[in-house]
Structures are given as C-alpha cells and as structure tokens.
Amino acid sequence: MAQEDVFKKLVSHCKEYGFVFPSSEIYDGLGAVYDYGQYGVELKNNIKKYWWDSMTLLHENVVGIDSAIFMHPTIWKASGHVDAFNDPLIDNKDSKKRYRADVLIEDHLAKIEEKINKEVAKAAKKFGDAFDEAKFRQTNPRVLEHQAKWDEIHERYKKDMNDSNFEDLRQLILDCEIVCPISGTRNWTDVRQFNLMFSTEMGSTTDGAMKVYLRPETAQGIFVNFLNVQKTGRMKIPFGIAQIGKAFRNEIVARQFIFRMREFEQMEMQFFVRPGEEIEWFKKWKETRLKWHKALGLGDEKYRFHDHEKLAHYANAATDIEFEMPFGFKEVEGIHSRTDFDLSQHEKYSGKKIQYFDPELNKSYTPYVIETSIGVDRMFLSVMAGSYAEETLANGETRVVLRLPAALAPIKLAVLPLVKKDGLPEKAEEIVRALRLDFRCQYDEKDSIGKRYRRQDAIGTPYCITVDHDTLQDNQVTIRFRDTMEQERVPVDRLRDIIAEKVSMRSLLKKVIE
Ligand code: GAP
C-alpha cells in the first residue's frame, strides 16, 4: 500500500476509534487544532509518564516544574522570539491565499525529486536484477538534468534563507514558475516576515492592558526559574529541570494532521552544566534520548539523527531525532547545546544576577545548557504510525491491529464473557473488579467473541481474557495475546502477575537503563 494511503488510513483510524478528533468538529473544525478522545488521552498520558519518569526517576539530578503559560512579555524579548520567531509569508493576489515562501520552494524541490525517483523506478522495472541504481543516477542524462536543477534551486534557497534575502526568495518562486494551487496564477505579493506567537491582552483596557503572549515553547519557563529551583532544591551543577506543558504557534502551513499544530504539547528538559563541558553532555543526552525512543520496540531502523549543519547563533551543536513517518523521516525531538545564551539574556533583560557558585571550582559562572525538546503530539503520531498494521490472517480475513508498546496501550486488558448468560458476565465483572486497581480494564459482552477481539486489536489492547463455562468450575480463563493471537489457559489468580510483567511502566523504564 502506498505510504500516502497508510497515512490516510491512520488518520481515519484515530478518529473512528476515539484517539484524535478535529477540534470543534460540529462547527466544521478549527485549523490545525485537535482534541484527544477517550483512548487518545490515555495513550498521551502514558507517553508523558514514560518521559517524565525516565527524566525524574532515572536521573537523581533532574527535577520537574510546572510553570504558567502566561509569562512576563519581556521574557519573549529576551529570548529573541519577539524579533526573530518568524516565518516568511507570501500571498497570491488572485486567490488571496497565504503561503509560507519556504514551503512553496521545498514542495517544488520535492516535485523534482519525485521526477528523479520516477525515472529510477522506470529503469529498475525495465532492467530487472541487472539494474545498477547508483550508476544510473550518475549517468542518465534526464536524471542529471533534474539533479542539476535541484542543486541550483536548493543552493539559492538556502542562501536566501540564511541571508534573510526575501526579495530574491520571491524572485526564486517566480523563476521556478511556482503557481498558486488555488488560482493557478503567479501573481505573488512580496515576501514578508510573520511572527508565530499568539498574543492577547491581560488586564482591562481602562487600567492599561498589557500585551502578553501564549508561550511558543515551555523552555523559557525553566530558564526564568533556574535560580528558584537551584536554590530551593540545593541543586549542584550538573542538574536538569524538566517540564511538560502546552505551547502555541500560529503555524501558517499546518499540515499532516497532528504533526504541525497551533496548540500542542512539549516535554522539555534543560540540563545545566559547567562551561566547556557542554559538548560532552550533548553527546550523552543524544545517546540517552535515542535509547529512550528505541526501548519502545517500534524498530531501531525507524530512527535516525539529523545533525544541524547551520546552527542558530546561540547554539554550538544541535541534532534532531527523526522518525520514519508515513510521509518520510521527520523531526520528533530536538537536542540542542544552547551555550549560556538564555540565562545571559534573562540576566541582561531582568537586571538580576543569574549565576551559579561552583564550590568545587570556587567561582561563579553562567551555566551552559543542553536542551532536549520533544513534542508530545509528534511522539503520539510516531507511536501510532509505528504500531498500525493491517494483516491478512491464515483464514483469509484481515485485521487492523495497533501493536502499541504494552506499557503505553490505553487499555491493558479486556475481559470478555463468552456468552451473556449462565453467570459468565458476573464472573467476568468479578475479574474486572479484582484487577482494575492495577490495570485499566474494559468489560465487553456485545457481539461475537471474534468481533470483540478485533475491536480490542484496533485500540491496541495487549490482552483479552475470555471467561467461559469451564471458568466457573476450574477458575481458569483463556488469555489471548494481541500480537501473536495465541491463546493460553491460565488460572485467574495468576492474571495479575502475567499481565503486570509486560504492561508496567517499570518494565519499559528498565529497558532504558539496561
Ligand atoms: N525549546 C526548543 C524548541 O521549542 P523546536 O524544535 O521549535 O524547539 C521542539 O520544538 C519540538 O516541539 C519539535 O521537535 C516538535 O516535536 C515539537 N513541535 C514544534 N512545533 C510543533 C508544532 N507546530 N506542532 C506539533 N509539535 C511541534
């Protein structure tokens, strides 16, 4: 199945099974804003717990905070967001539609790449086993022509973006003959910078309302609390502060479902270190974070690092952890070595000294910072994409199964009476009552047992427990395993142990430190 179709199916699966709904749907939705449904919120909470515990339980020197979404507006001046958190925008005068200039060019580059890939696929089909792809790419005149065009556009585009040369960026759009997909014309406005922060007013206008922003990242709440936490927690460098919370960005091109949203959630950790030791810590956190992702068992080959060649002016190293989504490898997490930029800026703008006295070195300094920053929603999407499968069974039937890591699954076990009579429902409910303090259980008695299994497969429930007539005699049940569909007869008293071993957060966290 084409990857595009897989993605479409995943999006409708999320809606159909209560994971993610478009926000305000009965009012036709609100662009790039989504709500999590009854299973989505459980999965999301489990992802957050996995991250939170891995930061604050597995690292003695990492503590958490929960700072407010509203912060003093000068914070965003100090952080650079007021002046530089911009996207280059362009409007089509005929359709009145607004686009990100960089996205128009990137889409154009992707189309050229697609042409190259088509040539390669055609030749591969023609030559069969004898096909040498590398040689074909280096010698085929049509491929070379497309590649030369791609290189030329790409180089000019990168330079324009680096130099903030928006006049040439517009000219590049014209030279590439990019048309508006709605009007089909090339009647473009100038390219303008557009700030991505949402703002609102705090206080009534009569006593002078203050313009405040909805935070575009949670990190600044950590920086401005650095001294509070360090002093009250008697923290010694190196140490980290972790936070999970909402962030808001007025994204212009909001595409790909929950990949790019206007309201989303971040899990960020700022790790404060001695100046000069930051690269060593950057490398350590890179490895630690990749291990955290891989422990989920979605497939090691689905992850890769993308090291940044061009760094923000305040960073001295940066990398992304990318996951193979149905629409290609995409950033899920960023790891950045941010030097002492943020703390120094807040010292400058607040007029308060933000330094750390290092008793071992017997001197004060502004700590350097390694940041790990991951989007909850992107992580959610990567887990869903990595777990979704359509399978053809031996009997020719198909099943949709979410092979979610058991510790993240919204429902851990479903208890199913074989029939709705003869005391089986009562026995099943008794089992639910005995296990519900340990696991999120679901009782289901509607439809055939096969249909009930499929419903649980579709929401990723790792275990189904079937109660039959024999259960009433021998106090044993059939446990069915989601992934293998194998079934085993086990005593009711052993259920807790069998299930706990696989579904506990503890078992997942153990893999991170193995
Ligand atoms: N404090 C650093 C920071 O915010 P970022 O690369 O802009 O860095 C970090 O964002 C992570 O937040 C990204 O890797 C991504 O997972 C998530 N993220 C950023 N913008 C997002 C959006 N519009 N929708 C969903 N997730 C987003």
UniProtKB/TrEMBL annotation:
Subunit? Homodimer.
**Which residues are recorded as binding substrate?**
100, 217, 264-268, 371-375
* Binding annotation for ATP: 249-251, 259-264, 331-332, 375-378
Q: Which residues form the signal peptide?
A: none
Q: Which EC numbers does the record give?
A: 6.1.1.14
Single Gene Ontology MF annotation? ATP binding
Q: What is this protein called?
A: Glycine--tRNA ligase
